[in-house]
Each structure stands twice: as structure tokens, then as C-alpha cells.
Amino acid sequence: MSDDTDIAEELADDIAYPAFHPSVIPIQIDDNTIHIRGGPWKGPIFTIQDIEEDDTIPRLVELIDGQTHVEELLDAFETEEQREEVAEALRRLQQSKAVYDLGKQEDPMYPHMAVRNRLRTRDRERLSERTVLIVNASRMGIQVAEDLFEMGVTDIGMIQPIERAAEDTSRLDQWSGFDEFDADDLEAAIEASDYVVYTATRQYPQLEQRINDIAIETETPWVPAQIFGFDGIVGPAIYPGETACYECFRERMLASVTNPTGHENYRQTLADEDHLSTVTLPAFERAIAGFLTLDLLNLLTFDMGYTVGRVVAIDSIDMGVDVDRVLKLPRCDACGEAESVDVGRFVKLDDMIEAGERIREGD
Asked: Which of 94, 187, 242, 324 has its CA at a distance of 20 to 30 angstroms from the CA of residue 249?
């Protein structure tokens, strides 16, 4: 078997039909130089130069079209030296995520996902295996569901416990994996889900507390995205028993606001009084939903993401973004451990004899 055949077979395993990643743009600087980049700062930035100046670069760019098999691509170059150079260039382009195998991917969202180094085939399969429940009290839930379906999640349920905040879900019927639950089935729906998402454009303290309590009891991870007045809050992503719960977050937030008593009354009044409105621009809601869904890609795939133990606050007035850590409260009423029974530090010989007698007697 020739060296050329070995090279072609090795490349075919990873990039049988090489194509330039849709998020990057190959630019031919001159006849012997190609520059590839996805933007001014992020993504692949790559330059290939042919020092032999034998027309290899222009031909290579034309053949990276997603339709030409890598064996055919290599055969287009006359000398063994050229084929080795092209093979090395393809390897480096593939490693830098500038080139991918178009033949393996039918999912139109894959090219964006592939920019993230860890999101490989098995990780994408995991997205399709997760069952997500969206507890919705806003316009955001519909957008989040659509985005998750397009990213590869196949099983999404929605429940809308606040009747006056419920949205028409008919546009989600195009996906066979969508299901809508009755508002009374919140506990069962959460328990049956792998991950819960909560979206709201105003504060509903009782609902927030109930989701938190059920999530702790069922050990179900969840993440909220809410609009508090002029601020959009994404996170914290909550993993019961591992991270701060929502009550921890609420208490920490309360400690940082001006006039905590007034703030608590404000939260409760907004939840109870329908005629009171908050400023929620549709564009801002879409922005917050977008922030949430971007991190859900990590949370659902890796059970870790930017909002685990953090909240991201986006100011709708000046578009400022703040990130704050959320630590567990040592004695949280919701997730804190119950006080243990007081046990004596020293065990006397009489105690040991008494315990042995109980064991022998079968107590």
C-alpha cells in the first residue's frame, strides 16, 4: 500500500468530504497565500502560504467544497510532495476547526456547535437524549423551546402555571417532541424531566419557591431567566446538593438591594396585582432568552456552564453586563442540612458494654 493511500485513508476517517466551516471566511491574499478567520478576535485565525509558489493554494481552496472526497482531492495534485503538503494543510485546518466533514453532518446547527472544541458527536447525541421542561410565564419560553429544538434537543415539555402570563404554544406543534402539561402537574412534570428552565418577565415569589422546593426534593437541576424591572437576570443554574439553591440566591440578592423590606413588598405586589405592569420590551426578552439558550447548550451537554453558581445581569438601559457569584448559605431554609443530633465527643467503657449487650440481645 502506497504512502499516498495511507494518507488518504487517515484523512477520510475525519474529513472525508472537507468543507470550510460556515463561521469562517477563507480569503485569498495572493496566488500563494490564504487567510482564514471567523472574526476580529474569536474563532479560528489561520494563514497558509505556499513557499514553492506552484499554484497549490488556489486549487486546494477550490476543492474544499464539501462535494469532493479527500482521495479525489489529493489525486488532483501531481507530485507526492504536493500531496503531503496538502494533507498536512487539511489536518491543520481540521484541527483548528476551519474545515469540517460536511458528509457526516446533516444537522444545520452543527457547524456553529463544532466551533466549541468539546462538542463532538457523542455530546450532540446527549442533547437529543435530554428531557427538558420549560416553566413559562413570559414570551421567552416559546423562543427558548424553538432554539433548543433547533440545537438538537428532541423532548421538550412546557407548563404555564400563571394563567395571565400564558402564551400561545401552537407554533411549537411543528415539533413532534413538544408536549404541554396542565398547570396542576408541576411537581410530576419536574420529576419526570432531566432539566428545568424557568422564564418569567415579572417576579412570582410563590412559584419560584415551589420550583426550588420540588427541584431540591427530586434532585432536578434547573436554571431561571427573568426580567426584574429594567434588568434581565440569567441564572444561577442550580444543581441541588451541589450549588446554591434559589433561596440562597434570593437571600444574597436581598442583602445587596436598597431597602430590603420595600423590595420584598415590591416583589409580592407585582405577583399579586395584575393591573401593575413592568417595562418588558420584546427585543429585550429575546435577548435574555438568547443568553439563556446559549448557556443551556453547555448545561445540557456537559452539566456545567457559565451560569453554574453565577448570575448574569443585563441592563436594558445602558446594555451593561454584570456577573456575580452566588454562594450557598450555610443555614439555608431550603437546601441547608438539618442540624444533626448532638452526639457526645467521648464514648465511655460502660457505653461500649451496653451497646454490645444490645447487639447480642438483637435490639
From this structure: 187
